[in-house]
Specification:
Length: 424
Amino acid sequence: KSSISGFERLGQIWSKPTEAKIRMTKDADPINVLVFGGGYDMNYEDDSYVPTSSAHAKGNAIYIINAQSGELIWSTSGETGGTKNVKTEKMINSMVGGITVLDRDNDGLMDHLYAADLGGQVFRADFENARPAKFGFTVVNNFSNKRVTRILDTAPATEAFKKYAYRFYERPVVSFYRNEGISGQTVANNGKLFALVNVISGNRSAPLSTLRNTNEYANRVYGIIDTDVTNADLYKNGFTPSVVNITEGKLVNLASTLGATPSEADKNTAKVTMVKGSMHGWFYPLTRFDGYNNVRHNKGMGDSAVINNLLYTTVYNPDKQYGNVASCAAKISGGSERQLYCLPYGICMDDTSVSGTGGYIPAGQGIQELTLGAYNKDNTDIKVLIGTTTITDRIDAAKRAGYGVDGKKKDSNIKDLYPGEAIR
C-alpha cells in the first residue's frame, strides 16, 4: 500500500515484477530481488491527462525489493525522500510496463535496467554489484547505483500539445549489435557493440481513442541506439554519458526520410547517419495498417519481441472492419496485425522490401497481443507466432473493408524471413 514507508509513490501494479539477482556486500552470497515499476495512476483514464512538475502522477517510480522479505533495497522517483530513494528529476509519469534487466558481464547479477513511462520517456539505471577480490578483480564493498539516465525524451514541450505525449505501456525490448562501419571510410564506432532499445506507444487505457485525429501526432515505434551501456569506461569515475535526453531531432524519421517506395540509395543514406553516430536511432510513425498508408488511430499493443534481427510488434486499429454487423448487435471493434521492422537500423535492405519495413501479418479481430509458442515438443527453441486469423481471412482480401479517405492501397510486402521460405 502507498502508506508503507518507501513505497509512497505506488499506483496500480499492472505488470509482472522482473526477477533478478544482486550481491549486496563483498562477502555475501547473491540474493534474489524483484524489480518493478510504480504502476498506474487512474488519472490516465482521461485521454488527455498530463502530469505536471508540481503534480506528479502516482506510480512515477522504480523499485528493487528483496524477493524473500519484501524489504526495499533501492528506488528512484521524481520525489525526494528516504535514504534508499534516488531522485530523478524528470520522472513524473506512471511506470506501468515491466522492467528490462541486463547482466553486463555474465556473472548472473543485474547490472542495468531499462524502463519506459506513460509520458514518452525511457530511463536506464546502472548498478555496480559488490565483489570479492577474486580472479584479479578489484574488490567492491557494497552494491550501489551509479546513475539514472533519461535516454529518450519525446515529451511535447508546448503546453497545448502535451496531451499527445507518447504512452509506453510495455517493457523496452533490448537487443545487441555491432556497428558495421562503412566501406572505405573511418567510423568512430566501427565494430563496437551497442544496444538497441525498442519501445512502441499506444493508449492501452483507451484503445478506441480518436484523440490523435491527425497523423501529425500518430503513435510511434522507436529504436534507440545506446552506445553508453556497452562502453568499457561506464563505471569509471568521471564517465559522462553521451546517450542522454535523446529527442526527435536526434532520431531519423524513417517514414518521411525513406518515403513510400525508397530506392536502395535512399535506404543507404538513412542508414549511414546512424552508422556514423550523427543520429542516435530511428522511429516510424504508426500510420501503416492492412497495406494502407496514412491510416489514423493506430496503437501499439502488448509486448514486442526480437527474433533473427526482426522486431515483431502488434498494432491495433479500432476502425478495422470485418464484414457487416447490424448497428444494434454486439461486435468486436477493430483488428490487429503483426508489424515487422528490420534491426538494428529499422531499414530492410532487401529489394523485396518496397517500403523499407518488414511488412505485416494479419492477426485477427480485436486486440491480439503477440503470442509466441514452441514449434513442437521436440523443438521448443524454435518459436512460431500464434494467432486467431482464419485461413479465409488470410486469403480473401475482399472481406476487408477499405479506409476511404485514408488513402489508396499501397504496395506492401511480407519480408522473406529465411531464404526460399516466403511468409504468406
